[in-house]
Amino acid sequence: MEIMTITATPLVDALTEYARQGVIRFHMPGHRGGRACPDPLRDWLGEAMRLDATGVLGLDDLHQPGGVLQIAQELAARCFGADHTFFLVNGTSAGVHAMILATCGPGDKIVVARNLHKSALAGLILSGAHPVYVRPELDEEFGVSMGVEAATIAAALEAHPGVRAVLVVNPTYYGVTSDLEAIAAVTHSHDIPLLVDEAHGPHFRFHPALPTPALEAGADAAAQGIHKILSGLTQASFLHLKGPRVDATRMGDVLRVLQSTSASYLLMASLDAARAQMVREGGHLWDRALELAALLREGVAAIPGLRTFGRERAGTPGFHDLDPTKVTVQVTGVGLTGPEAEHILRYHHGIQAEMSDLYNLLFIVGYGNTREEVLHLLDALATVAREAGRKASGHRGPAGTLSQENRVRGQVPAAPLPAPMPLPPIPPLEVLPREAFFRPARSVPLEQSRGRISAETVTCYPPGIPVLGPGEVVTPEVLEYLLTIRSTGLRISGPADPELRRLRVL
Ligand SMILES: Cc1ncc(COP(=O)(O)O)c(C=O)c1O
Predict the structure, then answer these.
(1) Is the pLDDT of residue 491 over 50?
(2) Cα separation of 254 and 121, whole Å?
(3) Could you count the other beta carbons within 10 Å of the beta carbon of residue 315?
């Protein structure tokens, strides 16, 4: 892995120079370099407002780059080992939409791992593509989705001749990676591109102890959330292409359709700066983050009742490798749900986790964290575990239903949690997601939805894998699963009625 050593920041420099020149501005944006800024924005953003410029002379144009933006994108491509890199200002979502739109047209088949992010579903709606869903593996102990096996992809490609692309999420939110090299080999044996939603893995390139980056593993395109893991401003992301299977000209056309014509220069400059920061000091910064994550993982393992997992699980189904900076902490052993523990940490200890699911908390350890913060978190977790454990041992009731709302408020003694349930089979796709999106829909009581075609997605957390997608038939197995889930109070995402009393059907 050879990382280029160019630390230049052409876009940052051009923007700084424009602000320095004190040019009289008769151009957008309306705040005129911050002078006409309303409170409290002026206080919040200060100097940054002078740099909130637009595509004036010398600052190039994202939709037709030929100056500093082109150079900045080329430097990013060289840094990440890509042939082409595109700056994204509409989040990694735009990259996922673009990868699908650039490779699939209406009716074209695409193999999609079912632990897809909602941006992939949006890409299917935008393109009119025909998803061939494949199941990722499930970890029953932690109740979360793992990666997808190459053999699963191979079987889908064999069963569906004429597929145009394969799309996988790698790593998962919890940091677990699939065997991308094997998946790339299988995909390329059909001479089609492997598209990777690498929203949570832009740092892999910068430290040998992190998993293999998608492009190095053979992916043809990868969308990365630079704002999620590196130091880009929120929404700033990259889309990389490598090799001949995804056409860069076509991708440019697609991004011109998807992205704003007023791309934020602050966002784009943050991409330039974040890339240069990684070139300059990525190795050292990730050394530190990895050390802190190890400290957290070891500390959690020593707290009675809490559990975490590490690389020792590599080799189990769907678990090729792990990004150790993602630390999953299972809290059910002390009688708490994930949301309860998240709530207590936030409002009693001043600590915000990345997210929680029913059983677990997820912490992202970054180079912006300190040793003191990790020690404080460990202290807080030990206190939470001790206090919750004491309560739970006195009050644990019979197995029953959970009121998520009351549990989150922490006002109800811990009740036994539902164990992870095996997911029902992926239901048949009766109409394509795009058609389902545009067809009239009406809401019916969930009990009456059997055999109907769903207009919406239903995802239960955990495991965060959709049980039902738009255009799919509500099979008896799916209905039974949803009725059970509803009675346990698991968090449900997607439907207009989050309590799932009703479902919208076509
Ligand atoms: C796996 C995955 N892909 C794509 C996205 C979309 O990224 P963004 O929020 O930057 O649009 C997310 C966001 O959380 C994600 O988790």
Answers:
(1) yes
(2) 17
(3) 9
CATH of the domain at 360: 3.90.1150.10
Please report, in angstroms and rounded to a whole number, the separation of the first and last CA atoms in the chain: 50
Examine residue 427 and state whether it is found in any structural domain, yes or no: no
- CB of 232 sitting under 6 A from ligand 1: no
Q: Which atom of ligand 1 is nearest to the CA of 227?
A: 10
38 with 157, same domain?
A: yes
| Residue-level pLDDT at 401 | 34
418 lies in some domain: no
Contact present, 322 and 296 (Cβ < 8 Å): no
Q: Is the peptide bond before 29 cis (omega within 30 degrees of 0)?
A: yes
Give yes or no for residue 197 CB within 6 A of ligand 1.
yes
Claim to verify: residue 236 and residue 313 sit in the same structural domain: no
- Any ligand 1 atom below 6 A from CB of 199: yes
297 and 205 within one domain: no
Per residue in 106-116, pLDDT tens?
999 999 999 99
Q: Which domain holds residue 294?
A: 284-409
Q: Strand 326-330 relative to strand 360-364: parallel, antiparallel, unpaired? A: antiparallel
Residue 328: CB partners within 8 Å, gap ≥ 6?
142, 144, 174, 175, 308, 309, 360, 361, 362, 363
